[in-house]
Design goal:
Blueprint lengths: L3 E4 L2 E4 L2 E2 H8 L3 E5 H13 L6 E6 L6 H9 L3 E4 L2 H9 L7 E3 L6 H10 L3 E4 L2 H14 L3 E8 L21 E2 H13 L3 E7 L10 H18 L7 E3 L16 H12 L5 E4 L3 H4 L3 E12 L4 E5 L8 H5 L5 E3 L7 E7 L8 E9 L6 E4 L20 E6 L2 E6 L4 H5 L4
Parallel strand pairs: 4-20, 5-6, 5-13, 6-7, 7-8, 8-9, 9-10, 9-11, 11-12, 12-13, 15-17
Antiparallel strand pairs: 1-2, 2-3, 4-14, 14-15, 14-19, 16-19, 17-18, 20-21
Helix pairs in contact: 5-6
The structure holds ligand LLP.
The site of ligand LLP has 22 residues, from helix 10.
């Protein structure tokens, strides 16, 4: 359920006309819906209400401060993967003790920043990282709380670039090494092992791989019991998928019921790190048709949004639904929707059935709220898009469009 609907043939985000927004703020334009964001967070979070838990929104999916603030206001913690994300989360008012820090390559200064802030825990991904966190914490006279990210070797059946919990992936520690890691951690003076963690991949459309990973973690938890450790947290990561097209991922309620029932009676606080499922379908990217062009083999719709604005189709071959902002009722034909960037890989859709569109008309690219703006770049010296947050009939600019001056500001 979301709040992007056509009314009398014209697309609205909640009570705001997309055409009016484009007129006022230009394109390409990211537009998010507050009601959808709130609904998704509530639906997800309440699916785990039968047990102690903390929903740590995964900042990388969409890191705009206004969105972080909104979610923090609803009680969300945050899952971060860099000093930059820590900075954003703190700036947005997220209490440090609701922040978990994952990632295979934390730098000493990032570890220091996180210890200074007093985050809930580090999700540690290698033995060398463990030693480094211990060294940094000891030098600061602090004790670092850690979980180990366990790589359960489970196939999440998703795109290979975003599957993370298989043996061949760079993430986490395998189960055998994890046992060694906990025993080393127990003996390190500036480390307190408090949890177990895993994140097996993103855009998962079935529950089975999550449950397979959870089973392996729980079997491992039994092994830890004899080690005199105080394990309080189980972090199951993120990864629940969303419908981009025909996918039918499990509803958070179904996911929550399966997970909470597997953990019933255990003295563990559950941590979840959802990203896409919260923001993915809460945002669209609006683009203007610059030209249409027919060649003997293809019909191209050239728009003013490109792979620098939304890289998912180019990078993963991802499908994003595209529709006219103003429905025309014209005949549908087969087109490639492409951007102005000088690469053939610059497309938003290939061989797509779309009603005939004309110069100056607007298109909405759906499901662009997650990994849209955050993965955007300045390639081809293109200023990044503006971002708008709609709430009822109110639209707020939450990030101004970049200017050419912004683009060269750090160059000497
Ligand atoms: N926790 C960790 C440790 C992660 O690495 C990720 C995502 C998440 C949580 C959130 O996963 P989600 O709930 O959003 O699936 N750029 C790709 C997705 C990369 C995901 C990276 N890690 C895309 O556009 O599909």
């Amino acid at each position: 359920m979301h709040h992007f609907q056509h009314k009398n043939g014209s697309l609205f985000v909640e009570d705001v006309s997309v055409r009016d927004l484009a007129k006022q703020h230009g394109t390409p334009l990211y537009v998010y819906s507050t009601a959808t964001l709130k609904r998704h967070f509530e639906a997800f979070d309440s699916a785990f209400q039968s047990m102690p838990h903390l929903t740590c929104y995964s900042v990388k999916a969409n890191s705009n401060l206004a969105i972080l603030r909104l979610l923090a206001g609803m009680g969300a913690g945050m899952d971060i993967v860099s000093g930059g994300e820590l900075y954003r989360a703190l700036l947005a008012g997220v209490p440090a003790d609701k922040i978990v820090y994952s990632g295979v390559g934390k730098k000493p200064e990032e570890i220091r920043q996180a210890l200074t802030a007093g985050i809930l825990m580090f999700n540690v991904e290698s033995m060398q990282e463990l030693i480094r966190i211990n060294d940094v914490a000891r030098d600061m006279g602090k004790v670092a709380k850690v979980s180990f990210r366990i790589n359960p070797d489970v196939d999440p059946q998703t795109h290979p670039y975003i599957s993370t919990g298989m043996k061949k992936n760079k993430f986490g520690l395998n189960i055998e090494l994890s046992l060694e890691a906990y025993s080393l951690a127990r003996d390190l003076p500036a480390i307190e092992p408090v949890g177990m963690d895993c994140h097996i991949g993103s855009q998962l459309t079935s529950i089975a791989p999550f449950m397979e990973a959870l089973d392996k973690l729980l079997a491992f938890y039994e092994k830890l019991k004899g080690m005199n450790l105080d394990i309080q947290y189980l972090d199951l990561g993120g990864g629940l998928g969303i419908p981009y097209s025909e996918e039918e991922p499990p509803h958070p309620t179904e996911f929550g019921a399966a997970v909470t029932s597997a953990l019933k009676g255990l003295p563990l606080k559950l941590i979840l790190e959802p990203g896409r499922v919260i923001v993915g379908n809460a945002g669209i990217l609006v683009a203007e048709v610059l030209y249409t062009k027919q060649t003997p083999s293809k019909n191209f719709v050239i728009v003013d949004a490109a792979m620098n604005d939304l890289v998912r189709p180019s990078l993963y071959g991802s499908f994003h639904r595209i529709e006219e902002v103003q429905q025309s009722g014209r005949a549908v034909g087969d087109v490639d929707v492409v951007g102005p960037i000088c690469e053939s890989g610059d497309f938003l859709a290939k061989d797509r059935q779309l009603a005939e569109v004309r110069q100056g008309e607007l298109l909405a690219v759906y499901s662009a709220g997650a990994y849209g703006f955050t993965m955007s770049s300045n390639y081809n010296t293109r200023p990044r898009a503006a971002e708008i947050l709609v709430d009822g009939d109110k639209a707020t600019v939450i990030r101004r469009r970049e200017t050419y001056e912004n683009l060269v500001a750090n160059e000497i």
